[in-house]
């Protein structure tokens, strides 16, 4: 029986081609997801080993939960992980005195704050990768090697990573512009360096350590404190320490750390493992996302596999009947089909493994071309290949089981005579499908009620309890699963009525071809429904995403049109607008007011932090944004120094209008006493050095060594000259003081964009924090009455041109910008889902091929009585188009319904308006007709290739 199965597989290999393609595409997603995840993990490990390469790290000893880890030792990837309290920078001196310490330095990096201007005058940016600054000098970063020039020594000098130098076309000696948070400054490139690993497209800029420390502290709102102090050990003469050596050095450092320092030393390996783990977890969403498409592709492919084996079983039925007649058992006949399935699954899986590997290599190449080079390995592991093989074979076996069962259980006499049993009634399936869809619809209804209800979503306590446990996410997902499965189960019962409706127009225009095509669909309702279901799944997901995307853009447009009052919006590509830019914007003719969204860091309310706290001008609600008020008067509250709180924040903390809240922050100021002492100590140190050198010069003069005396005198003069040019800021000592203000909740607003935000005015914010620690995220510009906004925008663009990263948009451009972001995200999803639709096209080809095979005599008779080849082609084209339209219409119906439910579920979070993209859905319908016509060509060619007499007499 094995030989029979293998012989049949060879005989029907051409039938397997499309199934092999379907399996290969599905398996490629599975293997590709594993390869891509491993490539990212390998990249992370490489970068952690290179970028966090100190032997020991000293960090805080008190664990804190935080989403802000921008200063992680991994300078290229920020992570969401457990963080620890800051430690004092003065610990560096203590650590340097420990036996075995070669060097100790503050390790900070700042991401997304600076912008480098390329040689051509444009800002340097790469796809999705940040611009990162690091403090760089000799010995501060072991994995960095200078290839040209030297390290920077002051604010006007920078060193560039080789990739940044390549992207900017800058070299040592060039001058360029570096945009700081305070504004653009001219800098000179004094060095170029490389690192031991690829930096995944990050633009890395080396600053003088003191400059980077100031930038970091300004960005983080801290003073004299950092997250980490990095330590290199001396045991291996500059080479990395072993794990045991790291632990020994960490133990020695821990012994000398002051008890009140709240600091602890850990090994570099420990920190690298922690950061690698958290970063990999953060990137972990990518693999499940790809696997979702793998499941879709394999699910759709299973229909094609089932139809392929139905076709093979039908063509081989007489052979199976003969086997049964000579004594073969049902199990043996069943095994012949399963052997073919195993072979098909193995071949398709093998092709899929290679395709998945190639897909990841192509992605890696594409990302490198777009400026994100990755050096992680893309080769699949043995376990990846085994998983891909098992998945492909199992899906193939599932698809082949029913046809194999049919071959095994068909009575031999009936199979010999090619008679078939009438198709069972589809009514039971319809009842089951309707019940499943009803359950799914009720789940969606509960999801909607949970989202919009103020209190219990339903009158039934049991349902309310279930809804509370599930929430909107699970009810939405369960509803989608039940509706999709229910529609697939019900589809055979829909074939006859829909074929009558959809076939009316073709029957009217093409009386013969149209009627025959419509009747042919009803012959095998299950087969027709299964083929349409393959297309239904892809179209349902695509149309659902289309509705969500249109709703997002419509909601943004609605908010801008109905709530936004300002005429122009200024945004920064780096996420921050320099204060100097705001000054220039305010000076443009025609400007009435400029309202800045300034994000406040480190602010707590009754000891608890809030995700987003903003300092605003009093003109926010009068000139910029129309608030949706739940309680109080937002405009008056902001002007009078009260808090304006988003509805979600108020509910979370139980706040109401009139409540008094203790708001705490931190302010950094110059410590006059410490600064004076530092200056006096420095002067004393310089005087001592000069005095010592002069004494040596006098002694050499007395000994008659005139040359030596002159050399010492020159050294003393050089020390004095250097002291004259020292940067005064290095002697300024800062102090950090905690600030507390009791503030009243003056209003609660429910605007979707601001439900999780707390507003206070600039005056109150200035009492809590320094202005330089407030990030201006967006600036809203309101024009004076009758001002020419077009001319004002043109002048404003010219004024901020020197900042390189600022965009000045009118209201329509603002809406378009947000809409384009949505479209860019969806384009990737559309491209992946298009593969499932391609697989569905193969399914239609397979179904028509099977139908043509079953109707060989019928088609021969039609040709014998004078039906032209064009009419035969037209009949098959109409038949394929009707299948495509059926699947598309079902997909559109379910997809639009799912999109509408998603919009209702997230209405309170900003998805306020439901928008159905009718033109896009209409395009899907037209494409489905084209898909049907194209899919009909191979079966039509096969039907017309056979001579008429051979077709009539075929067995």
UniProtKB/TrEMBL annotation:
Domain of life: Bacteria
Transmembrane region(s): 16-36, 289-313, 333-360, 381-402, 430-452, 473-495, 530-549, 827-853, 874-902, 914-937
Pfam families: FtsX (PF02687), MacB_PCD (PF12704)
Membrane topology classification: Multi-pass membrane protein
All residue ranges annotated as the ABC3 transporter permease C-terminal domain in the record: 292-408, 831-947
Primary subcellular site in the record, as a coarse category: membrane
Domain MacB-like periplasmic core: 17-205, 529-666
Keywords: Cell membrane, Membrane, Transmembrane, Transmembrane helix
UniProt region (Disordered), positions on chain: 60-79
Cell compartment(s), UniProt: Cell membrane
Protein family: Belongs to the ABC-4 integral membrane protein family.
Protein name: Permease of ABC transporter system
Source organism (scientific name): Bifidobacterium panos
């Amino acid at each position: 029986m094995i030989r029979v199965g293998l012989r049949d597989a060879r005989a029907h290999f051409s039938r397997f081609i499309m199934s092999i393609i379907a399996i290969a595409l599905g398996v490629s997603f599975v293997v590709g997801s594993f390869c891509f995840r491993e490539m990212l993990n390998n990249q992370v490990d490489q970068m952690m080993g290179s970028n966090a390469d100190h032997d020991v790290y000293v960090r805080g000893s008190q664990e804190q939960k935080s989403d802000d880890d921008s200063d992680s030792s991994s300078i290229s990837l920020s992570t969401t992980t457990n963080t620890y309290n800051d430690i004092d920078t003065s610990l560096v001196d203590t650590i340097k005195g420990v036996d075995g310490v070669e060097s100790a330095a503050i390790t900070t990096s700042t991401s997304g704050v600076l912008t480098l201007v390329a040689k051509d005058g444009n800002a340097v940016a790469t796809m999705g990768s940040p611009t990162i600054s690091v403090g760089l000098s000799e010995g501060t970063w072991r994995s960095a090697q200078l290839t040209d020039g030297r390290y920077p020594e002051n604010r006007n000098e920078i060193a560039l990573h080789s990739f940044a130098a390549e992207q900017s076309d800058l070299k040592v000696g060039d001058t360029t512009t570096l945009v700081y948070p305070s504004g653009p400054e001219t800098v000179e490139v004094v060095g170029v360096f490389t690192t031991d690993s690829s930096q995944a497209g990050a633009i890395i800029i080396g600053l003088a350590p003191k400059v980077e420390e100031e930038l970091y502290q300004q960005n983080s709102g801290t003073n004299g404190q950092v997250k980490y102090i990095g330590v290199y050990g001396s045991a291996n003469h500059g080479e990395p320490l072993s794990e045991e050596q790291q632990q020994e050095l960490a133990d020695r450092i821990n012994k000398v750390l002051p008890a009140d320092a709240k600091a602890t030393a850990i090994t570099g390996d420990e920190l690298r493992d922690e950061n690698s783990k958290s970063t990999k977890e953060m990137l972990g969403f990518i693999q499940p996302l790809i696997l979702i498409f793998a499941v879709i592709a394999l699910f759709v492919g299973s229909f094609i596999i089932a139809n392929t084996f139905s076709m093979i079983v039908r063509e081989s039925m007489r052979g199976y009947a003969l086997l049964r007649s000579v004594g073969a058992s049902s199990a043996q006949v069943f095994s012949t089909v399963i052997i073919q399935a195993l072979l098909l699954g193995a071949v398709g899986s093998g092709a899929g493994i290679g395709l998945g590997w190639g897909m990841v290599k192509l992605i890696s190449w594409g990302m490198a071309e777009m400026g994100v080079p990755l050096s992680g390995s893309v080769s699949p592991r043995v376990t990846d290949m085994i998983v891909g093989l098992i998945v492909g074979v199992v899906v193939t076996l599932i698809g082949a089981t029913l046809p194999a069962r049919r071959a095994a259980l068909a009575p031999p006499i009936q199979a010999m005579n090619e008679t078939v049993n009438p198709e069972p009634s589809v009514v039971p399936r319809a009842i089951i499908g309707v019940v499943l869809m009803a359950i799914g619809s009720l789940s969606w209804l509960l999801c909607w009620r949970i989202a919009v209800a103020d209190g219990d979503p339903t009158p039934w306590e049991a349902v309310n309890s279930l809804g509370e446990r599930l929430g909107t996410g699970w009810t939405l997902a369960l509803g989608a699963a039940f509706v999709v499965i229910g529609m697939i189960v019900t589809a055979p019962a829909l074939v006859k009525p829909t074929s009558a409706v959809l076939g009316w127009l073709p029957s009217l225009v093409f009386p013969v071809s149209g009627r025959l095509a419509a009747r042919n669909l009803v012959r095998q309702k299950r087969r027709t429904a299964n083929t349409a279901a393959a297309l239904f799944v892809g179209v349902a997901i695509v149309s659902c995403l289309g509705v969500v995307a249109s709703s997002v853009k419509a909601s943004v447009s609605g908010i801008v049109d109905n709530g936004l009052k300002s005429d122009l919006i200024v945004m920064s590509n780096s996420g921050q607008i320099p204060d100097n830019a705001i000054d220039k914007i305010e000076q443009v003719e025609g400007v009435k007011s400029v309202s800045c969204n300034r994000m406040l860091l480190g602010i707590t309310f009754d000891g608890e932090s809030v995700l987003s706290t903003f300092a605003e001008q009093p003109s926010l609600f009068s000139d910029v944004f129309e608030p949706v008020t739940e309680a109080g008067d937002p405009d008056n509250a902001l002007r009078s120094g009260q808090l304006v709180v988003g509805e979600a924040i108020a509910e979370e903390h139980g706040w109401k209008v009139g409540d008094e809240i203790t708001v705490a922050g931190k302010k950094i100021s110059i410590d006059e006493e410490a600064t004076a002492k530092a200056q006096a100590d420095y002067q004393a140190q310089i005087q001592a050095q000069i005095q010592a050198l002069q004494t040596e010069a006098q002694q050499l003069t007395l000994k008659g060594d005139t040359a030596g005396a002159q050399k010492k005198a020159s050294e003393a003069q050089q020390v004095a000259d250097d002291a004259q040019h020292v940067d005064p800021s290095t002697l300024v000592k800062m102090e950090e003081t905690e600030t507390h203000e009791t503030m009243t909740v003056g209003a609660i607003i429910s605007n979707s964009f601001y439900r999780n935000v707390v507003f206070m005015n600039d005056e109150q914010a200035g009492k809590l924090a320094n202005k330089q620690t407030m990030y201006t995220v967006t600036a809203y510009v309101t024009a004076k009455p009758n001002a020419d906004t077009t001319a004002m925008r043109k002048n404003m663009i010219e004024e901020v041109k020197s900042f390189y990263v600022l965009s000045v948009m009118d209201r329509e451009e603002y809406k378009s910008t947000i809409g384009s972001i949505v479209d860019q995200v969806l384009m990737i999803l559309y491209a992946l889902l298009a593969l499932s639709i391609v697989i569905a096209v193969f399914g239609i080809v397979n179904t028509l091929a099977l139908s043509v095979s079953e109707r060989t005599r019928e088609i021969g008779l039609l040709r014998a009585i004078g039906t032209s080849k064009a009419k035969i082609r037209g009949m098959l084209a109409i038949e394929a188009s009707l299948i495509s339209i059926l699947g598309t219409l079902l997909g559109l119906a379910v997809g639009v319904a799912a999109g509408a439910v998603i919009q209702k579920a997230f209405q309170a979070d900003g998805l306020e308006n439901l928008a159905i993209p009718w033109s896009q859905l209409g395009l899907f319908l037209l494409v489905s007709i084209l898909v049907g016509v194209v899919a009909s060509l191979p079966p039509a060619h096969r039907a017309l290739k056979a001579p008429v007499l051979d077709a009539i007499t075929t067995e």
